[in-house]
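Task: sequence design from structure.
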C-alpha cells in the first residue's frame, strides 16, 4: 500500500510541476540552486559547469586565469528537473549504449523524451534570458544525461561546449575507440567541443561524432601551471611520498558488456588483466612494508568497489592485512596534481597523471608483466616513449628494486622532452585556459536566445 501511495504521490508532483502555471516556480527553484563555484566577476561570460566535481582542477584554472565566471547546479536539483517527463531508468538495452535515442523502443518513450528535451530547452531559455548563465559545459561529450541538455541547448540557441577531458587516446587504440564512439555515442549537438589533442580529433571525425569545424584543440587547462613551471625549469622538491595511480582489470578501452556494471573490473569473465592488477598492487604494498619511513598512496580514480579489489589483491598476495601496513593509504581524497607535487616517485599505467608527473620532473615506473605483455600488450599506452620518458619494470620484483634505487638517490628532476606532451596534451605553452576562454567568448558573441 505504501509503495502505491508513494508512486501516486510522485506522479502527482511530476504532473503539477509540468503544468504551465508552475513553470515560473521551477525557474525560481533552479535559479536559487545555481551558485558560483568561485567568485563573481564583472563583465564576464557565465558558464554553467555540469558535473563540476569531475573536473575541478580544470575549472579552477579557468577561474584563476580567465574572465569566465564558473557556476554549478546542485546535484539534487539537476536530478529532479531531468526526470519530470522522462526517466532514463526506464530505457532498457545495451548498457554500453550512451545514445538514448537508439534505446527508445516505443512511441510513448520517444514522445516523453521529446517532452523532456522541450522542457529543458524552455528552462535553459528562461535562465539564459535572466543572465543566470550564458553558456553550458560538461567534462565529457557523451554522458547520457547530457544528451538531453545538448539537444535542448541547441534548441534554445545557448552554447553547450563540452570541455572533453577523456582524450587519452594512444595511436595504438585510435581505431578501436573510433568504432566504440560510432557504435555507442551520440553525435555532438552543439557547435563546438574543446579537446586536448589530434588523436582525439581523429576519433571524433572518423566516428562521425563531430565534423572538423566543430572541434577546437585547446589543450588541457589543468596543466597550465605545470607548463609554466616546466618552461621556466622550476620543479617542486618532493616529500617522502610514493604514489601508485591505480588502474582496473579492463585496460585501454577494453569492454566486456556483461561486466559493464562492475566499473571496469571483471568478476565472471576470463578477460581482463586481473593478474597484472593484483601483482602490481601487491608489489607496491610490499615496497611500503620494506620502506616504513615513506608514505605510500594508492589513488583509485573514483570511489566504487575499486578499494575492495585493491585490498583483496594485496591481502591475497602478501598474506597480511592492509590495515597493518601503517604507511599505506588507499584514498581518493588527494587530487592527482597534489599527489604528483608531493611524490618522489610515481607508478602507473595508461594515465594522464603519469604524463603530468613527468611535467613535474618525477620519475615514472610503468609495470609490464603478465597480461600487460601478453593478451593486453596492445592496450598499454606510451610504448614509443618507453626508456625515453618512462621506466619499465618487467616483474613485481623489478618494480620494487628500481623503485628503491630511485628513492635512495639524492633527488633531482628528470627533465622530459616536449614530444609526449604535444601528442597527448596538445600544447606546451601553458595557455590552454586562455584558448578555452577565447572559444566561449567567440561562441557567446551575438548569440540571440530563441523564443
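Answer:
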Amino acid at each position: 500500500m505504501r509503495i502505491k501511495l508513494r508512486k501516486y504521490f510522485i506522479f502527482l508532483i511530476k504532473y503539477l510541476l509540468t503544468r504551465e502555471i508552475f513553470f515560473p516556480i521551477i525557474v525560481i527553484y533552479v535559479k536559487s540552486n545555481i551558485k558560483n563555484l568561485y567568485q563573481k566577476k564583472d563583465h564576464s561570460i557565465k558558464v554553467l559547469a555540469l558535473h563540476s566535481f569531475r573536473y575541478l582542477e580544470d575549472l579552477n584554472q579557468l577561474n584563476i586565469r580567465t574572465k569566465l565566471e564558473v557556476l554549478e547546479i546542485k546535484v539534487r536539483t539537476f536530478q529532479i528537473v531531468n526526470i519530470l517527463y522522462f526517466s532514463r531508468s526506464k530505457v532498457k538495452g545495451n548498457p554500453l549504449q550512451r545514445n538514448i535515442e537508439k534505446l527508445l523502443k516505443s512511441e510513448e518513450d520517444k514522445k516523453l523524451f521529446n517532452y523532456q528535451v522541450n522542457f529543458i530547452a524552455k528552462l535553459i531559455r528562461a535562465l539564459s534570458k535572466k543572465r543566470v548563465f550564458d553558456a553550458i559545459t560538461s567534462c565529457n561529450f557523451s554522458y547520457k544525461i547530457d544528451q538531453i541538455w545538448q539537444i535542448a541547448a541547441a534548441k534554445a540557441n545557448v552554447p553547450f561546449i563540452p570541455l572533453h577531458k577523456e582524450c587519452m587516446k594512444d595511436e595504438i587504440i585510435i581505431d578501436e575507440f573510433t568504432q566504440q564512439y560510432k557504435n555507442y555515442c551520440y553525435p555532438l549537438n552543439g557547435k563546438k567541443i574543446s579537446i586536448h589533442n589530434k588523436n582525439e580529433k581523429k576519433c571524433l571525425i572518423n566516428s562521425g561524432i563531430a565534423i572538423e569545424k566543430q572541434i577546437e584543440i585547446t589543450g588541457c587547462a589543468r596543466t597550465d601551471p605545470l607548463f609554466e613551471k616546466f618552461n621556466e625549469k622550476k620543479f617542486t622538491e618532493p616529500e617522502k611520498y610514493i604514489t601508485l595511480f591505480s588502474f582496473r582489470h579492463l585496460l585501454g578501452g577494453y569492454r566486456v558488456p556483461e561486466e559493464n556494471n562492475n566499473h571496469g573490473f571483471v568478476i565472471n569473465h576470463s578477460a581482463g588483466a586481473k593478474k597484472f592488477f593484483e601483482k602490481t598492487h601487491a608489489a607496491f604494498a610490499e615496497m611500503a612494508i620494506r620502506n616504513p619511513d615513506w608514505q605510500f598512496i594508492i589513488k583509485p580514480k573514483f570511489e566504487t568497489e575499486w578499494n575492495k579489489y585493491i585490498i583483496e589483491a594485496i591481502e591475497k598476495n602478501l598474506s597480511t592485512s592492509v590495515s597493518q601496513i601503517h604507511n599505506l593509504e588507499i584514498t581518493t581524497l588527494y587530487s592527482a596534481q597534489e599527489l604528483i607535487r608531493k611524490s618522489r616517485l610515481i607508478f602507473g599505467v595508461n594515465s594522464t597523471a603519469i604524463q603530468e608527473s613527468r611535467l613535474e620532473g618525477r620519475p615514472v615506473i610503468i609495470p609490464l608483466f603478465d597480461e600487460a605483455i601478453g593478451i593486453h600488450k596492445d592496450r598499454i599506452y606510451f610504448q614509443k616513449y618507453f626508456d625515453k620518458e618512462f621506466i619499465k619494470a618487467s616483474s613485481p620484483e623489478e618494480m620494487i628494486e628500481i623503485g628503491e634505487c630511485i628513492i635512495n638517490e639524492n633527488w633531482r628532476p628528470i627533465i622530459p622532452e616536449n614530444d609526449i606532451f604535444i601528442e597527448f596534451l596538445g600544447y606546451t605553452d601553458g595557455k590552454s585556459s586562455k584558448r578555452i576562454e577565447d572559444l566561449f567568448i567567440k561562441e557567446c558573441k551575438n548569440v540571440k536566445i530563441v523564443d
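The chain has a mean pLDDT of 91.
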